[in-house]
Amino acid sequence: AQKVTQAQTEISVVEKEDVTLDCVYETRDTTYYLFWYKQPPSGELVFLIRRNSFDEQNEISGRYSWNFQKSTSSFNFTITASQVVDSAVYFCALSEAGGGADGLTFGKGTHLIIQP
Amino acid sequence: KAGVTQTPRYLIKTRGQQVTLSCSPISGHRSVSWYQQTPGQGLQFLFEYFSETQRNKGNFPGRFSGRQFSNSRSEMNVSTLELGDSALYLCASSLMDRVYNEQFFGPGTRLTVL
Fold first, then answer.
1. Inter-residue contact B111 to B11 (CB < 8 Å)
2. CA-CA to A45 of 20 to 30 Å: which in A91, A104, B44, B113?
3. A25 contacts A76 by C-beta, under 8 angstroms
């Protein structure tokens, strides 16, 4: 069965600091997809990124960057120069190509608090 | 383009009752998935529908069921409600039929069971 671990339950930083959210996954499939979602206080999950298991290139989108390392089964997310609006719960998720009973498996989430 | 809509947004029921939640996907999306979010268990996959057929089902009891209509709208039903069913129920839609595609989530229905 697939599993996603987000060891950091809550992180609190001061605005403009850089912050990294960790994600470690487990899967037996060789083809799988990794995601990050943001859940602001309103509750709606917002898609941030999808990465397939064959693409280990790091990605940068504005202040956001992602580091995918198959060797350590990690898919970490870094926010540079954090802002108060980044405060939210962030979820890492995994989906195996076969779909199956696990569907999209989410980590427990990391509650990120950006203090002004 | 309108996003995923879920109705109702809030619901209060008592133990033993049943409840039906509705989800309208983004226009053109044919896949709808349902998730349950609780503080203890986090986000858990319930089931996925594509073209009116259930494609995948998570590890939930038979009290949880769903269906999808020809216009891709989906309903989820929970019978014989238990206190532990109190949760935020999220619906997500995607263009294709597999969970590895980008899913767009609705605002959720918060169900409280008393």
1. yes
2. B113
3. no
CA torsion A73→A74→A75→A78, rounded to 10°? -170
Q: What is the pLDDT of chain A when averaged over all its residues? A: 91
Judge contact between A94 and A73, C-beta under 8 A.
no
Cβ distance A23 to A77 under 8 Å?
A: yes
| Token duo for residue B32 | 């709808």
Q: Is the link from the previous residue into B61 a cis peptide, with omega within 30 of 0?
A: no
Cβ atoms of A107 and A8 within 8 Å: the answer is no
Q: Do residue B100 and residue A43 have CB atoms under 8 angstroms apart?
A: no
Which pLDDT band holds residue A102 (cuts at 50, 70, 90)?
low
CB distance from A48 to chain B under 8 Å? Answer: no
Contact partners, residue B6, CB within 8 Å, separation at least 6: B21, B22, B23, B24, B89, B90, B91, B106, B107, B108, B109
Query: Distance of CA A62 to CAs A65, A82, A104, B21, Å?
Result: 8, 11, 26, 37
Q: Is the Cβ of A104 closer than 8 Å to some Cβ of chain B?
A: yes
With beta carbons under 8 A apart, name residues in chain B contacting A9: none
Q: Where are the beta strands (DSSP E) in A1-116?
A: 3-5, 10-14, 19-21, 24-26, 32-39, 46-52, 59-61, 64-69, 74-79, 88-96, 105-106, 110-115
